[in-house]
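Dear colleague,

Following up on yesterday's call, I've attached the two folding results inline so they're easy to grep. Please treat them as preliminary; we haven't cross-checked anything against experimental data yet. The first protein's sequence and C-alpha cells come first.
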Amino acid sequence: MINKDIDFHFKSPEDSPGYLLGQLTTLWQRKQKRVLDPLDLTQTQLVLLAALAWLSKESDAVTQIDIANQGNADRMMVSKVLRTLAEKKFVTRKEHKTDTRAKTIKLTTLGAEVLQKALIAVEKADLEFFSQPDVDLFILNGSMSKLINKNKEQ
C-alpha cells in the first residue's frame, strides 16, 4: 500500500504544533465570527479598526501603511478592507496633507461605537475560549509573542 510509505516527522497529528495551532485557530475564528456577525464585522475588519484606534492615540495622521505595519498585514488587503469599512461608514479615507499617494484614515463616531461593542464581545469570547484551569494565559501570550517576533521577518 502506498500510504504506508509516507513518512511523517510527528507520530500523530496531535504531536504536531502546526496541526494543533491550525485546529485551535479554526475553532477560535468560529467563535469570533459568532460574536462579530451581529455587528457586521469580520475578524480582519476588527483587527484593522483596533489598529487604527491604537495608532490614533498617538497620531492624527494615521495612514493605510501605518495600519498594515501595525498588524503585519498585506498592504493591498488593508486597502481593500478599509474601502469596505468606509462603505459601512466606520472609517473615513482622505488624501494625506503632505503625501498625495497616501490616505489618512480616521475612525467615525459609528465606527468607534461598533469597535467598542466588538472589543467587549471579542474580549469576553477570548476569555471564555482560552480559560482553562491549567493554562496560564500570561505564559501562553508570552510564548505566542516570542514566536510571532521570531517569525515576523521571515
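Below is the second protein, in the same order (sequence, then structure):
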Amino acid sequence: MTVTARTSEETVIEGYADADNKCAPVELPRLLLLKSPEHGVVCYRIEDFEVAGDSGGDQACIGRWVRGISVFYLARSGYSGPDSLRYEAVTDRRRDRVAVRVTVLPGLGNDSDAASLGASPRESAMSPGPIPACVVPVS
C-alpha cells in the first residue's frame, strides 16, 4: 500500500470495521507494529464509520454507522521524503499483514503547532509492538 502524507499532518493509513448481521460491532483488531517508520509515528483511534459497501453477502449495514478503528501516520515536523512501516491487524478470525510506503510532502502551513503531535527528531524511533492510541484529536 502507498500513502501520501504532508509534514506534521495526520494521515489515515487504513480503517477497520466489522459488524454482525444486525450491524453490531464485533471484535476490533489488535494492531502490532512490526517495522517502525523512521521519520514519523503511527497511532490508532476508535471511530464510527458509515458503511458504504459490504464484503459479505448481507447488505443490511449499508448506510448505517458501525464502530471501527483507524490507523494514522504523522511525519515528524520538517521532514519530507520517503518513509515506510509494517504492521499487523489481528483478530481471532484473521491476521492481516500490511506494508506501507509513505511519501511525505512538505506541509502547507506552519509546522510549529503540529510539531507537538508527534515525536521530535531528537527522540528515538518507535519500537515494534502494540501501536499506541493517538493522544491528540484529529484537527
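For the second protein, one point worth flagging: Confidence is low (pLDDT under 50) at residues 111-123.

Best wishes,
A.L.
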